[in-house]
Amino acid sequence: MSVATHTFRTIALAAGLSLGASVAVAAEPIHNIVLVHGAFADGSGWRPVYDRLVKKGYHVSVVQEPETSLEADVAATRRVIDQQDGPVVLVGHSWGGQVITDAGDDPKVKSLVYLAALMPDVGESTETLETKPQFPAPNSDVKLTADGFFYMDPAKYQANFAADSPADLATFMAQSQVFLSQKAFKTPAKAAPWKTKPTWAVVPTADKTINPDLERWMYKRAKAKVTEVPGASHTVFLSHPDLVVSIIEQAAGK
């Protein structure tokens, strides 16, 4: 090595090591994944995705939001985000998309993944989106309790929600579903981080819970990186966990 070359490298190391180290850290893939379930389900449905991500070395947390209000669900999600030791990929399914849209403005959240999920703009509620006349609801089997909570008719649960999952699993999910309050259904989003943060989305083309055309419309508006899964049901994370994991990994920078 020439004296000139050696001198150049020494100066570069002295002047640029700190900058180089920060760039290396910034380029590192995200290892914290936070999963947010939707209405008519609970966190246990994430197990196939959770197991695969953990096996790949990710730190995965599952939010068990109460669905009593949007504010309560966002608070439950932020509580889990606060526990993470660094940047986060925030993943939402179905109603969970409404939740991660508000919670996703947290500075720790670096990217968002919407799985058959609602993606509201500021001022839009689940009611706003799901009552758009051009996107009619795929079923009429959502019921309302006497005290104002929505749930999916257990007799119609598999056909509408998890058609490509085993019957015994769909039955378990139907009987363990978390009911969604009318208050949550009507509360508008206060943020839209998908406008500024990298966003991925999945459309299961045989979704019988949220109209796939509504999903396409929301995701196109957001300029999200969209994957369509032919023939998949609303619970695409159960029937196609490897695909879902691959998309989460893209959002994590791998």
Describe the structure.
The chain is of the alpha/beta class. It is built from eleven helices and nine strands. The strands form two sheets. The chain has a six-stranded parallel beta sheet, sandwiched between helices. It has a three-stranded antiparallel beta sheet with strand order 5-6-7. Helix 9 (212-221) links the parallel strand 8 (199-204) and strand 9 (225-229).
Tags for this entry?
9 strands; 17% strand; 6-stranded parallel beta sheet; 254 residues; single chain; 3-stranded antiparallel beta sheet
Estimate what percentage of residues fall within beta strands. Answer: 15-25%
Secondary-structure element series:
HEHEHEHEHEEHHEHEHEHH
The biggest sheet, with number of strands, parallel, antiparallel or mixed sense and barrel status, is:
6 strands, parallel
End-to-end C-alpha gap:
36 Å
Mean pLDDT: 91
Structural class by sheet pairing and helices: alpha/beta
User: Given the C-alpha coordinates, what overall shape results?
Assistant: globular
Based on DSSP secondary structure assignment, what is the total number of beta strands?
A: 9
Q: What gyration radius follows from the Cα positions, in whole Å?
A: 21 Å
Count of DSSP helices?
11
Helical residues, percent: 40-55%
Task: Order the strands across the largest sheet as they lie in space.
Answer: 2-1-3-4-8-9
- List unreliable stretches of 5+ residues: 1-26
Summarize the structure.
Helices cover 42% and strands 17% of the residues. The chain has 254 residues and is an alpha/beta fold.
